[in-house]
From TrEMBL:
<dbReference type="Pfam" id="PF13409">
    <property type="entry name" value="GST_N_2"/>
</dbReference>
<dbReference type="InterPro" id="IPR036282">
    <property type="entry name" value="Glutathione-S-Trfase_C_sf"/>
</dbReference>
<dbReference type="InterPro" id="IPR040079">
    <property type="entry name" value="Glutathione_S-Trfase"/>
</dbReference>
<dbReference type="InterPro" id="IPR010987">
    <property type="entry name" value="Glutathione-S-Trfase_C-like"/>
</dbReference>
<protein>
    <submittedName>
        <fullName>Glutathione S-transferase family protein</fullName>
    </submittedName>
</protein>
<dbReference type="InterPro" id="IPR004045">
    <property type="entry name" value="Glutathione_S-Trfase_N"/>
</dbReference>
<feature type="domain" description="GST C-terminal">
    <location>
        <begin position="85"/>
        <end position="221"/>
    </location>
</feature>
<dbReference type="GO" id="GO:0016740">
    <property type="term" value="F:transferase activity"/>
</dbReference>
<keyword id="KW-0808">Transferase</keyword>
<dbReference type="InterPro" id="IPR036249">
    <property type="entry name" value="Thioredoxin-like_sf"/>
</dbReference>
<dbReference type="Pfam" id="PF13410">
    <property type="entry name" value="GST_C_2"/>
</dbReference>
<feature type="domain" description="GST N-terminal">
    <location>
        <begin position="1"/>
        <end position="80"/>
    </location>
</feature>
Length: 232
């Protein structure tokens, strides 16, 4: 049986959604990053980058959420265009990588500098807030007149989108007003969230009591780069 290493963050949740959509048996293995479990040797053997999600299927191990989505979808021949060289596959790869290289990183940095940076960082927050909005505006415009990211068909690009879109008001710090600016994003988010597989994926978060406190130990595990700022 596959082992799925996860926590409740956006990237693991999109893989959880695909696993539930595929109906594949898997063991959910919690990795509590605020307790530093991502640095345990047993987990580093699966993902030397010390990040979730990761997947172990027999002798095969994968990390990076978008790589896992693509690998599973291709293996199961579902939720992704399979014809090499086709226009449909080109679009799937382009939008999947757009989310991987743009939506995820800029949304994540917007969260960090808005909610977690140890000091107010006006320049950094301005940069990442701007880029997060810019990337989400690309998605918003793209979804006009489309049911899903690739048109009429639901697939892994929508799952990758869903992982981050669920938290967009928190990412942007705009609360309920977020959806006035991004109504097409909200429409697709609601469509995916209504799927039974999405509801099962969300329920996965309740199986384990992940640490909620961002105390000094959690900050040390989550932001190890800050140790370099200490003098002495």
């Amino acid at each position: 049986m596959m082992k799925f290493f996860y926590n409740a963050a956006p990237n693991p949740m999109k893989v959880a959604l695909l696993l539930e959509e595929l109906g594949l048996p898997y063991e959910a293995v919690p990795v509590d990053t605020r307790r530093g479990e991502q640095f345990a040797e047993r987990f580093l053997a699966v993902n030397p980058n010390a990040k979730v999600p990761a997947l172990q299927d027999g002798e095969t191990t994968l990390f990076d959420s978008n790589a896992i989505l693509l690998w599973l979808a291709e293996r199961e021949r579902r939720f992704v265009p399979l014809e090499a060289g086709s226009a449909e596959r080109a679009q799937a790869l382009a939008w999947l990588m757009f989310i991987a290289s743009g939506i995820g990183p800029f949304s994540g940095q917007s969260v960090h500098f808005r909610h977690a940076a140890p000091q107010p960082q006006e320049y950094a927050l301005n940069r990442y807030d701007y880029e997060a909005h810019r990337h989400w505006t690309v998605i918003e415009k793209h979804l006009a007149g489309r049911d899903f990211m690739l048109g009429a068909d639901y697939g892994i690009v929508d799952m990758a989108f869903w992982g981050w879109a669920r938290l967009l008001p928190y990412v942007l710090g705009t609360g309920d007003a977020t959806w006035e600016r991004y109504p097409n994003v909200k429409r697709l988010l609601d469509t995916v969230s209504a799927r039974p597989a999405a509801q099962r994926a969300e329920a996965l978060r309740t199986r384990h009591a992940f640490k909620a406190e961002m105390d000094e130990d959690a900050k040390r595990f989550m932001f190890p780069q800050n140790e370099r700022l200490k003098k002495g």
